[in-house]
Amino acid sequence: MDIHHKRRLLLAGAAAGGLAVATRLVLAQTPERVIKIVAKKFDFTPGEIRLKKNQPVTLEFTTLDVVMGFNLPDFAIRTDILPGATSRLRFTPDKSGEFPFHCDVFCGSGHESMTGTVIVT
Amino acid sequence: MKQAHAGAQAISRRSFLRLAGLGGAIYVSGLSGWSSAAALPGGANEDFFFIQLSDTHWGFEGAPNPDAHGTLQKAVAAVNSLEQVPDFIVFTGDLTHTTDDPQERRQRLREFKDIAAGLKVKNVHFMPGEHDASLDHGEAYQEFFGKTHYSFAHKGVNFIVIDNVSDPTGAIGETQLAWLADELRQLPPQARIVVFTHRPLFDLYPQWDWATRDGAKAVELLQAHANVTVFYGHIHQEHHHMTGHIAHHAAKSLIFPLPAPGSQPKRTPLPWDDAYPYRGLGYRQVAAEAAKPMDYQLTELPVLKG
């Protein structure tokens, strides 16, 4: 084995070692959750959103028909949901429990039943 | 009824009937600050009473009220049968139940107006609820009833109607808030002010959308005046709340009662009780004793009129 070949092996070993470290780092960082929520008269799907306390999450909203609103008063967050656009809310739940959310832009007869629950454990 | 407390002297002269959904018969002598305002120079104390009717939801059909086509007429007949004629009547919104069809919306508004025309008292004030006005920003409502926010005076009391429903987000809006500020600037600090709104101006239970997005701005403007009382609808039940010195009173509905804030997972109507028809919608009689002005006995009576 000549010197050049040893050097290539060393470099390859070093590169492999570096890749292993990088992989461990990536695995250690859980990718942030993105939950897609679809609104339509008079329903949110999913109507039950399960989250982990102190873990950041991004809620991503679209509507299939008219302008809607998503309001989660217990965490003081809300957004409009406009047809043809995606609305995003990023937050970190800092308390556990069951928290109601609702549509807060009047969207027709049945608007009052357009509700759901965020469950934080 | 809380607005009767300060008017114990007036109320003790007689008991009075309340229609649930009405918010009831309201003697102005019982309103917050009436006595102190009346004691000021030039502060005449001419007692009168008015009726608040609310949340008739004309056009609604469903199990929570199998007499949805008859309850409003019963209320009209009941008000017409009162021995003491009210000075005026105010409807605090949700005159009709929502429909997506603009023509059907107009038909319901027309039918509601025809039935309300049966009231013997012709001094009647209207305002929209979100079911009437939110889908078209009050367009159809205004064709039948005119402006959605306005003011009027009656026997020395200043009445202000605030529209917090024509904006589908449940906001009053900066334009109307500027109008309110201008209205209030013209009134002395001790003026007697009664505000009518559909949605509560304060955060009663935002989890069920029982709030007004910018209601705090209206309350802040009103706080500068010593004698303010707010009557509202929307929540279909009796409720009383203070923001500082301002008293807020909710009216029951004439279509179905709703649950107490947060008392159940969803704000679904309370079911009709065959054993007690019109529970939460019938008459209420409020009796006050002069010796115990803060002690009221409320008895709900079955609907008999109509």
TrEMBL record, chain A:
<dbReference type="InterPro" id="IPR028096">
    <property type="entry name" value="EfeO_Cupredoxin"/>
</dbReference>
<keyword id="KW-0186">Copper</keyword>
<feature type="domain" description="Cytochrome oxidase subunit II copper A binding">
    <location>
        <begin position="30"/>
        <end position="121"/>
    </location>
</feature>
<dbReference type="InterPro" id="IPR008972">
    <property type="entry name" value="Cupredoxin"/>
</dbReference>
<dbReference type="GO" id="GO:0016020">
    <property type="term" value="C:membrane"/>
</dbReference>
<dbReference type="GO" id="GO:0005507">
    <property type="term" value="F:copper ion binding"/>
</dbReference>
<dbReference type="InterPro" id="IPR002429">
    <property type="entry name" value="CcO_II-like_C"/>
</dbReference>
<keyword id="KW-0479">Metal-binding</keyword>
<dbReference type="InterPro" id="IPR051403">
    <property type="entry name" value="NosZ/Cyto_c_oxidase_sub2"/>
</dbReference>
<dbReference type="Pfam" id="PF13473">
    <property type="entry name" value="Cupredoxin_1"/>
</dbReference>
<protein>
    <submittedName>
        <fullName>Cytochrome C oxidase subunit II, periplasmic domain protein</fullName>
    </submittedName>
</protein>
<dbReference type="GO" id="GO:0004129">
    <property type="term" value="F:cytochrome-c oxidase activity"/>
</dbReference>
<dbReference type="GO" id="GO:0042597">
    <property type="term" value="C:periplasmic space"/>
</dbReference>
TrEMBL record, chain B:
<dbReference type="InterPro" id="IPR006311">
    <property type="entry name" value="TAT_signal"/>
</dbReference>
<dbReference type="InterPro" id="IPR029052">
    <property type="entry name" value="Metallo-depent_PP-like"/>
</dbReference>
<dbReference type="InterPro" id="IPR051918">
    <property type="entry name" value="STPP_CPPED1"/>
</dbReference>
<dbReference type="Pfam" id="PF00149">
    <property type="entry name" value="Metallophos"/>
</dbReference>
<dbReference type="GO" id="GO:0016787">
    <property type="term" value="F:hydrolase activity"/>
</dbReference>
<protein>
    <submittedName>
        <fullName>Tat (Twin-arginine translocation) pathway signal sequence domain protein</fullName>
    </submittedName>
</protein>
<feature type="domain" description="Calcineurin-like phosphoesterase">
    <location>
        <begin position="50"/>
        <end position="237"/>
    </location>
</feature>
<dbReference type="InterPro" id="IPR004843">
    <property type="entry name" value="Calcineurin-like_PHP"/>
</dbReference>
